[in-house]
Amino acid sequence: MNTNNLGFAGKVALVAGASKGIGAATARAFAQAGASVVLLSRSQPAVEALAVSIRQAGGDALAIAADVGDENAMKQALASVMQHYGRLDAAFNNATDGTMPAPLADLDIEGFDRGIRTNIRGTFLGMRYQIEAMARAGGGAIVNMASVAGINGTSGLSGYVSAKAGIIGLSKAAALDYADQGIRINVVAPGPILTHHLEAAGADIQRHAALSTPMRRLGRMEEVAASVLWLCSDAASYITGVVLPIDGGMTAGTKVPMNYRRGEPPRPAEP
Ligand SMILES: NC(=O)c1ccc[n+]([C@@H]2O[C@H](COP(=O)([O-])OP(=O)(O)OC[C@H]3O[C@@H](n4cnc5c(N)ncnc54)[C@H](O)[C@@H]3O)[C@@H](O)[C@H]2O)c1
């Protein structure tokens, strides 16, 4: 997707949870589209390394280490952004952390709490200080990261599902709070995206994940990034409070084989 015409030149975009995966891909996309990018994550060396590679590619980036669940750290982070750039136009709250999959009764409680803290408290605190900064610049756009797992239930992921469903509720309420103040707040809800997590899971899991989508393929990080940039751009100027699935059709419903409708025997299940 050509993002050069999305109007990010001279704008400042913050990505929370930027050190790797979808966050890093989105930060690179913002930089390629002409924005100055604030890279926020827990590890300073990781965000600094990404900032260096963005600068080497001709972009502008500021690296900030902060835990999204820490109120003081997030307040300080936004103060640093305002000190450095004097404005904030776009923000993508993307950080996640949590537990390994398990049925609810076996779910690790400490991991459950970490998932809620990073996703819900982290998105809440992020928005709180981003909104303050955007209000000073006359408006802005925020995109929060949910998942198809925040729309539909997913077995073994009750903690993650709760956290992502919480982000959807939080974002809709906040979108209403600021709809008449020039600040738009939307959500993206990806299906299975090929990041280092799915790469590490191996070919079998990747194939199953791909087959769980009507498009029968995994999503690419760049496809998520393109949607985030579009929602943050003026091209989406009348859109607030929406949840945009980026999921190859997963949340559209159930794909029924056409030969079943014609009364023919169903196709054998795909492996
Ligand atoms: N990969 C997928 O298939 C997929 C699908 C749907 C939704 N998502 C969501 O997309 C987002 C990114 O996923 P990913 O696969 O790139 O994951 P990832 O693990 O690569 O990225 C998570 C990022 O959050 C940062 N982070 C974690 N805890 C933090 C904290 N307390 N403070 C600051 N930063 C913190 C990590 O350092 C990392 O940069 C997540 O919110 C995830 O739930 C991913």
Automatic annotation (TrEMBL):
<dbReference type="InterPro" id="IPR002347">
    <property type="entry name" value="SDR_fam"/>
</dbReference>
<dbReference type="InterPro" id="IPR020904">
    <property type="entry name" value="Sc_DH/Rdtase_CS"/>
</dbReference>
<dbReference type="InterPro" id="IPR036291">
    <property type="entry name" value="NAD(P)-bd_dom_sf"/>
</dbReference>
<protein>
    <submittedName>
        <fullName>SDR family NAD(P)-dependent oxidoreductase</fullName>
    </submittedName>
</protein>
<keyword id="KW-0520">NAD</keyword>
<dbReference type="Pfam" id="PF13561">
    <property type="entry name" value="adh_short_C2"/>
</dbReference>
<comment type="similarity">
    <text>Belongs to the short-chain dehydrogenases/reductases (SDR) family.</text>
</comment>
<feature type="domain" description="Ketoreductase">
    <location>
        <begin position="11"/>
        <end position="196"/>
    </location>
</feature>
<keyword id="KW-0614">Plasmid</keyword>
<keyword id="KW-0560">Oxidoreductase</keyword>
<dbReference type="InterPro" id="IPR057326">
    <property type="entry name" value="KR_dom"/>
</dbReference>
